[in-house]
C-alpha cells in the first residue's frame, strides 16, 4: 500500500514553492454522513437484535428495557457500567501502547488472568496495613501481566516467534496455570473451614484490601478503578504525543528501519511497549479482583481482555478516544448482564453485544475503505 | 552481470533501426502544439489517439488540451519533467483517472476507458516506475497474480520462459522476487505485461533503476517488441539521451501542455532539453541529468572546458564542475576490511576498505547489487559486521547498533528514502527532527515551539515546498521528501555525509539542487561518500572515484585520471 500511494501522490504538485491551494469541492452526502452512518448502523444492529430476541420467544421491548435498566436507568446501573468500563479502558490503553510501537498484542485475556492471580496471592498472603497491601497487590498484578507478556517478547526477540501467535497461545497456558493454582490447596484454593466443602476459588480478600468505593448502594456508586484507568489513559496519551519516549515509540511503529537508523532500539522500545501493554492488562485484572469480585474463580477474566482489545480497535489506537468507547462497551456489558438475568439465553446476549460492537466498528471501517478507494482513484 | 566496455559511449545505444525503416510517412505533420489535422493516412491509423485531453486536480491543471498519437510499430517517447503531466496522461489511458475533457480513440474507434481492466481488455499495459511485485513470491507466482481460474504452475512457468525467450528477457520463473536485482525485477514486470500480449506497452521511467548495460538490453527488447510484433511502446522519460537513442518519435510536455512533437531523427539532445525545461541548462546539470557521458569525459583535465557535440555550454555558475581534489583534509571515515552477510548467509561485503577525507566527494561506482546497498546500510547502523571495522574521525563505531553511526556523525541520505529515510505517516516537522531529538526536548518532553522553529528554519533554508510543517510527509513529492531527508541529515552537522543514489527518480530541477547541495557540503569540509550506479552522476560530482565489485573496492582513481574504458572493466570485475 505504501508504495502505491507514494507513486500516486508524488507526481501532481509541480515544483513550486507556493503551498498547494486547498482543494474545494461541493459538499457531498458522504461528508455529513458520519453521524448519519452511525445512526444507520446502530439502528440496523438494534433491529437485528430485536429480531433475534423475538425469534427465541422473548419480547424485544422487554429486552431493550432490561438493557436500559442494567446500564443507564439509575445511579446504581450507571455505576455498574462505569465499573465494567474501568478494566476495559486499562486493557485498551495497554493495547494502544503496543499497537503504536507496531506490535500486536492480543493476549490481554491471559495477561489479565496472570496479573489477577499474582495480585490475589499478594493480597491474600501479605501481612501489613490494608492500603499498602492493596497497592502492592495492584503493582504485583501489573508486574505479573508484564512478565506474562515478557514471555512473548522474549520469544519474539530471541527466536522470532510472531507476537500475535505467542500472545494468543499464552492465553490458554495462562488459563490452565491459573486454574491449577486456584484448584491447589497449597496454592490459591480457599482454605477449608470445618464442616464446609471447598470449591475451586480463592478465599475472599480481606475488606481492607478492596479498592475503595465512592457513593452508597442503591444510589450512584463506583469503584476507584475507573480513576486509576482515567489517570493512566491521560498519562499515556501525553507520553505518546508530548515526550521523546512516545515519539521514539511511534517512530518504531511507523517505520522500524528509520527508527533503527535514528537510534531507536527495537528490543528496548518495542519489547518495553509489549511489557507495558501486559502490565496494563495485569493491572486491569488486579482492579477487577480488588474492585469487584474480591476473589478469583473460574471464568474470572470473562472476555474483558478481548473486549478491551476491541475498545482499542474501535478507538483507532487513540488513548483519549478509548475513554468514551470503554464507557460504551462497559454499558453494553452491564446491560447484557442484566438482560441474561431476565431469561434471554446467554448466547443471545453475546450475539446482541457482538452486533452492537459491529455497529460501532462499521462506520470507521467503511470510512477507511472509502478513503482507500478514493486514494486509489486519484 | 557483464562488463560494459563501451561505457564511454553515450549512455544508451540500443539498436535503433535506420530512420528509413521507421514507419514514418514522409511529410506527416509532426510539430506544432495541439495540431488536429488528420495526419494519419489509411496505412497508419494510430493505435492510440488521445485528443484534447484536459484534467484538473483542484487548482492544478495536470493536463490541458493534450493530444497524443501513437502508431503501431513505433517507440513513442513522452518527455517532460516531473509534474509535466506525463503520468496523469498515462493514468487516463489506463483508466485510473477519468479526464474532464477530451476523447480517447483506440484503433480508429472512440472509446471510454472506465477502469484498468477495461484498459487491459483494449490491450493497454503499463510497467510502473515503482514495481508492484510481491517480494516473497516466486517470479511465476507474481506473473500469474491477478489471473482468474485455477493456478496451473507448470503452464505459468512455461509461459514465463516462452515470453522470456521470445523477447530476450532472461528470468528464472522459480526465483524468489526478493532475491532479484532491480533490473531483473523490472524484467519480471515486463514479462507480466507482455504475457497478456498487449497492443500498447507503456513504460514509466524504466531506466531510472537500471545500469547502462541493463538499459541497453531493455531497449533491445523494446525494439524487438515493436519491430517484430508491430506493437506500440510509449516510453515515459526525462532522460534526453535515452529518448534520442531509443525512440522513433517524441512528444514533449511542459506544465500540462504539449509543447512539441518531433521525429527523433530530426532532433538532438540540446533541442529536446530546451523544449522540456523551457530554458537553456548549464552543461553540468544537463550532462548529469541526461547521462551524456561524452560531455563529462575529457581525460587529463580536472575541469573540462569547451562545448561538445551534444550540449551547449552556458558558463556553469550554479553547478560548478568538480575541481581537482582540494587540499586533502584528514581522514573522516575509514572502513577497514569489512565483511558482512545477509540474513540468509549470502555474503554482502567481502573485505571492503575505503577512506573518505574531509572536504572531498568520493564516488563509489559500480553495477547495482555489488554491495552498494550493504555499504549504505552499514553506515546507517542497519548492518552488523562479521569482521572489519568502521572508524569515524579516528574513533571506532559499533556497526549495527541502533543509531551508533548517526551518533558518531555519519549522516545518510538513503537510496530508498521513502522506505527507510523518513516516516511517511509523520509530519514534515517531525521528520526533520527525528534524528536528533535532544535538540528539541528538555527533560524528556518535546518542545512544540522549538520543533516548529527548527522546522520553519530548515524548510526555508532547504527550499522545501510544503503547505505547512504539519503536513504529512506522504503528501510531499519525491523531490521534496528527498530535501527533507537531506535537510535533517545536514542539520545534524555530520562529519561524514553518505548519499545513495541521490538523484534517482528526480527531475532536472531537483537534480540541480542536489548536485549543488552535495558540493556545498564538501566545501564546508564534510567528507561526502556518493553511492551511485549512474556513472554520469559519479563523474559530475566526485573528486575521487572508487569502484565496487562483489562487495569490495577493486580500484580507485582521481577524477582527473578517470578513463571510462578502465572504469567499465573494473566495474565488470576485470582487473585493469
Automatic annotation (TrEMBL), chain A:
<keyword id="KW-1003">Cell membrane</keyword>
<feature type="transmembrane region" description="Helical">
    <location>
        <begin position="262"/>
        <end position="287"/>
    </location>
</feature>
<keyword id="KW-1133">Transmembrane helix</keyword>
<feature type="transmembrane region" description="Helical">
    <location>
        <begin position="163"/>
        <end position="182"/>
    </location>
</feature>
<feature type="transmembrane region" description="Helical">
    <location>
        <begin position="220"/>
        <end position="241"/>
    </location>
</feature>
<feature type="transmembrane region" description="Helical">
    <location>
        <begin position="132"/>
        <end position="156"/>
    </location>
</feature>
<dbReference type="Pfam" id="PF02653">
    <property type="entry name" value="BPD_transp_2"/>
</dbReference>
<feature type="region of interest" description="Disordered">
    <location>
        <begin position="1"/>
        <end position="22"/>
    </location>
</feature>
<keyword id="KW-0472">Membrane</keyword>
<keyword id="KW-0812">Transmembrane</keyword>
<dbReference type="InterPro" id="IPR001851">
    <property type="entry name" value="ABC_transp_permease"/>
</dbReference>
<feature type="transmembrane region" description="Helical">
    <location>
        <begin position="347"/>
        <end position="366"/>
    </location>
</feature>
<feature type="transmembrane region" description="Helical">
    <location>
        <begin position="110"/>
        <end position="126"/>
    </location>
</feature>
<dbReference type="GO" id="GO:0005886">
    <property type="term" value="C:plasma membrane"/>
</dbReference>
<protein>
    <submittedName>
        <fullName>ABC transporter permease</fullName>
    </submittedName>
</protein>
<feature type="transmembrane region" description="Helical">
    <location>
        <begin position="77"/>
        <end position="98"/>
    </location>
</feature>
<dbReference type="GO" id="GO:0022857">
    <property type="term" value="F:transmembrane transporter activity"/>
</dbReference>
<feature type="transmembrane region" description="Helical">
    <location>
        <begin position="36"/>
        <end position="57"/>
    </location>
</feature>
Automatic annotation (TrEMBL), chain B:
<feature type="domain" description="ABC transporter">
    <location>
        <begin position="48"/>
        <end position="280"/>
    </location>
</feature>
<dbReference type="InterPro" id="IPR027417">
    <property type="entry name" value="P-loop_NTPase"/>
</dbReference>
<dbReference type="GO" id="GO:0005886">
    <property type="term" value="C:plasma membrane"/>
</dbReference>
<dbReference type="InterPro" id="IPR003593">
    <property type="entry name" value="AAA+_ATPase"/>
</dbReference>
<dbReference type="Pfam" id="PF00005">
    <property type="entry name" value="ABC_tran"/>
</dbReference>
<keyword id="KW-1278">Translocase</keyword>
<dbReference type="InterPro" id="IPR003439">
    <property type="entry name" value="ABC_transporter-like_ATP-bd"/>
</dbReference>
<dbReference type="InterPro" id="IPR017871">
    <property type="entry name" value="ABC_transporter-like_CS"/>
</dbReference>
<feature type="domain" description="ABC transporter">
    <location>
        <begin position="333"/>
        <end position="575"/>
    </location>
</feature>
<keyword id="KW-1003">Cell membrane</keyword>
<keyword id="KW-0813">Transport</keyword>
<keyword id="KW-0472">Membrane</keyword>
<keyword id="KW-0677">Repeat</keyword>
<keyword id="KW-0547">Nucleotide-binding</keyword>
<dbReference type="GO" id="GO:0016887">
    <property type="term" value="F:ATP hydrolysis activity"/>
</dbReference>
<keyword id="KW-0067">ATP-binding</keyword>
<feature type="region of interest" description="Disordered">
    <location>
        <begin position="1"/>
        <end position="35"/>
    </location>
</feature>
<protein>
    <submittedName>
        <fullName>ABC transporter</fullName>
    </submittedName>
</protein>
<feature type="compositionally biased region" description="Polar residues">
    <location>
        <begin position="1"/>
        <end position="13"/>
    </location>
</feature>
<dbReference type="InterPro" id="IPR050107">
    <property type="entry name" value="ABC_carbohydrate_import_ATPase"/>
</dbReference>
<dbReference type="GO" id="GO:0005524">
    <property type="term" value="F:ATP binding"/>
</dbReference>
